[in-house]
Write a structure and sequence with these properties.
- With about 500 residues, the protein is an alpha/beta fold.
- Helices cover about 35% and strands about 20% of the residues.
- It has two domains: about 35-255, Thiamin diphosphate (ThDP)-binding fold, Pyr/PP domains (Rossmann fold, 3-Layer(aba) Sandwich), CATH 3.40.50.970; about 275-485, Pyruvate-ferredoxin oxidoreductase, PFOR, domain III (Pyruvate-ferredoxin Oxidoreductase, domain 3, 3-Layer(aba) Sandwich), CATH 3.40.920.
- The strands form three sheets. Strands 2-1-3-4-8-7-9 form a seven-stranded mixed beta sheet, with helices on both faces.
- The longest helix has 19 residues, at about 195-210.
- It binds thiamine diphosphate and iron/sulfur cluster.
- Iron/sulfur cluster binds next to loops.
Length: about 500
C-alpha cells in the first residue's frame, strides 16, 4: 500500500487543546465513534500537506463542530447558524489571499443556511466546503435533519420520517451538480477504513483546489453519529453502509479541476481607512478631537474582563458598553457572549478583551483580570478564571465569595439595589457597575485624573452611540454611572 499512515497529531492541531475549558486538554470533545474527529484529522493533515496553515480561515459552524477552534491552529471565525458560506464569501472578498474552509453539518448547511450555501456555490466562491451528513441534528439531541432517511426515527420523528408530511431527504451533491460554477463535487463516507482512505483523497483534492484557487469545491461526508442514533460502533457502520449509502450514493459527481487554470490572488481591495471610519463610526470621528491616547498602566497589557449573571440583567450589554468604550478609543476589542437557550433568565456571561495589539482569541481561560458577578451561580462557575491578583466586583446581596486568595481585590456592592433605588430600574445595573469600576481603577492608581475623565467621556460616547435616539435612556445611564461612583464614595 502506498498510503503513508500517519500517527500522532497534525501540527495543524493545537497541542494540547489549551482553548478547551476544563481539565481535559488532550482529547477532543466529540462522542466516541463520532465522524467529526476523523474528518478533523483528515482536514488538518491536508492543510499541513499543502502548506496553507498560515493563511487558512476556518468557518466554524453552529453544530457539534462549533468547537473546531479548540483544535485547529488556524484563523477561525465562529459564524451564526448556517452562515458559514456567507461569512466565508466576505473573507474571500476582503482577504483574497486567505484560504477559506467552511465546515458544516446537515442542519447547518442543508436547512437553516441552505440559501447561503446554494448562492455561494452558484457564485463559485473560491472556498472548500466539508459537509457532514450524519442524518440528524447532532448537537441539539438528534432531531430530524433534511438528510434523515424516510422512516428513520429521530427525536422529532418518533414514528419514523413520514415523507408525506416531512418530505424526502435532500441530496445536496446532486442539487449543486446542476449549477455551472462548482469545480469539484464528491460524496464520501467514514464507515470503513477503505472509505476513510477514499475520504482522505477527496479532502486532499478539495484542499489542493483551495491552494491552487481553482474555485468552489464541495465534499459531502456521510458520517456516524452513534450516540444520537442510539447505536454501537458496528450498528452505526451497518446503518451507513446498508441504509444511508443507498439514499446517498458515493462517488465523484464532478471534477473540473484539471480544466480550470490555477487562480491568481487578486489584489485586496484598497480601503480608504478614514472614509470607512467615517461611515462606520461617524460619532467617534466627530469626537476625534477629544480622543486622547490613553497612557494609563492598565492598558500596557491586555485587559481581560469576564462578567456573568442571569439573562435580563444586562450582562451582555455591560460587556458591549465596555468593548465600545475601548473601541471608541481605538483599542482592539473582542466581545464574546455566552447564554443559555432560554429566552429570559438562565445563565448569561460574556468575555471582553481590550488590547493595543491584535487579539488572537476572544476566549478567556484562567487569566481574567477583572470578574464581575451578579449571581452566586455565575460566581461559582467562573471564579476559577480569575487571576490570583485579579479584581472581583460582585453584588453582595446575591453573592458570597468563598476561599479566595488574599491577593484578589474584592469589591462587594449592592449594584442591583442601587440601580433600582437611584435610577428607578434594575436594568441600569450595568452602568452602575461601570461607575463602580471607574472608581476601583482610580483607587488602584490605574487611572489618573485625566484618564478618569476620559473613561467617563468614553462611557458617555458609547451610551450615546447606542441610545442616541432615546435621550431619556442616555440620561438614565449617566445617572446610573454617577450612582455607581457614589457607592464607593466618589463623585
Ligand atoms: C439561529 C439558531 N437556531 C437554532 C440553533 C440551535 N442549534 C444549535 S446546533 C443545531 C443543529 C446542528 O445540527 P447539524 O448542522 O446537523 O450539526 P451536527 O451537530 O449534527 O454536527 C441547532 C438547530 C442555534 N444555535 N441558532
Ligand atoms: S452528537 Fe453525534 S455528531 Fe455530535 S459529537 Fe456526538 S456523535 Fe458526533
Amino acid at each position: 500500500m502506498s498510503e503513508k499512515i500517519k500517527f500522532g497529531r497534525s501540527p495543524v492541531f493545537f497541542d494540547p487543546f489549551e482553548r478547551r475549558p476544563g481539565p481535559i486538554k488532550k482529547n477532543m470533545h466529540y462522542c466516541p465513534g463520532c465522524g467529526h474527529g476523523i474528518l478533523h484529522k483528515l482536514v488538518a493533515e491536508a492543510i499541513d500537506h499543502y502548506g496553507i496553515q498560515g493563511k487558512t480561515m476556518f468557518m466554524v459552524p453552529v453544530g457539534c463542530a462549533v468547537f473546531a477552534y479548540y483544535y485547529f491552529n488556524v484563523g477561525a471565525i465562529s459564524v451564526p447558524h448556517g452562515r458559514a458560506p456567507a461569512v466565508g464569501t466576505g473573507v474571500c472578498r476582503a482577504k483574497p489571499d486567505s484560504y477559506v474552509i467552511s465546515y458544516q453539518g446537515d442542519g447547518d448547511l442543508a436547512a437553516i443556511g441552505f440559501n447561503e450555501f446554494l448562492q455561494a456555490a452558484n457564485r463559485g466562491e473560491k472556498m472548500s466546503i466539508f459537509f457532514v451528513n450524519n442524518s440528524n441534528y447532532g448537537m441539539t439531541g438528534g432531531q430530524m435533519a433534511p438528510t434523515t432517511l424516510p422512516g428513520q426515527k429521530t427525536t422529532t420523528t418518533p414514528f419514523g420520517r413520514n415523507v408525506l408530511t416531512d418530505g424526502y431527504p435532500v441530496h445536496v451533491c446532486e442539487m449543486i451538480n446542476t449549477l455551472t460554477a462548482p469545480v469539484y463535487i464528491e460524496r464520501v463516507a467514514l464507515s470503513t477504513t477503505a472509505r476513510i482512505m477514499a475520504a482522505r483523497k477527496a479532502v486532499f483534492k478539495a484542499i489542493e483546489n483551495l491552494r491552487d484557487r481553482k474555485g468552489f469545491s464541495f465534499v459531502e461526508v456521510v458520517s456516524p453519529c452513534p450516540v444520537n442514533l442510539k447505536m454501537n460502533a458496528e450498528q452505526i457502520n451497518d446503518f451507513i453502509e446498508n441504509q444511508m449509502l443507498k439514499e446517498f450514493p458515493l462517488g465523484c459527481l464532478r471534477d473540473r479541476s484539471a480544466e480550470v487554470p490555477a487562480g491568481t490572488v487578486p489584489e485586496p481591495p484598497a480601503h480608504d481607512v478614514e472614509t470607512v471610519k467615517k461611515v462606520l463610526f461617524p460619532q467617534a470621528m466627530e469626537e476625534q478631537g477629544s480622543v486622547r491616547k490613553n497612557t494609563s498602566a492598565i492598558f500596557d497589557r491586555e485587559l481581560r474582563i469576564k462578567m456573568a449573571g442571569f439573562g435580563g440583567q444586562g450582562i451582555l450589554s455591560l460587556g458591549i458598553t465596555l468593548a465600545n468604550m475601548a473601541r471608541l478609543r481605538n483599542f482592539n476589542v473582542s466581545w464574546m457572549p455566552s447564554y443559555g437557550p432560554e429566552q429570559r433568565g438562565g445563565a448569561a456571561s460574556c468575555a471582553v478583551i481590550v488590547s493595543r495589539n491584535r487579539i488572537p482569541s476572544p476566549m478567556i481561560s484562567r487569566d481574567c483580570d477583572l470578574f464581575i458577578a451578579t449571581t452566586q451561580a455565575a460566581y461559582d462557575k467562573y471564579i476559577g478564571e480569575l487571576r490570583p491578583d485579579g479584581i472581583l466586583i460582585y453584588d453582595h446581596t446575591a453573592v458570597t465569595p468563598a476561599d479566595l486568595p488574599e491577593s484578589v481585590i474584592k469589591v462587594g456592592v449592592d449594584a442591583v439595589d442601587v440601580a433600582s433605588r437611584e435610577v428607578g430600574s434594575a436594568k441600569y445595573v450595568n452602568s452602575v457597575l461601570i461607575g463602580v469600576l471607574s472608581v476601583i481603577l482610580e483607587q488602584r492608581g490605574l487611572l489618573d485624573a485625566a484618564d478618569q475623565a476620559d473613561f467617563e467621556q468614553a462611557f458617555n460616547a458609547a451610551v450615546r452611540e447606542k441610545f442616541g435616539k432615546k435621550p431619556g435612556a442616555v440620561e438614565l445611564n449617566a445617572k446610573a454611572f454617577a450612582a455607581g461612583r457614589k457607592v464607593l464614595g466618589q463623585k
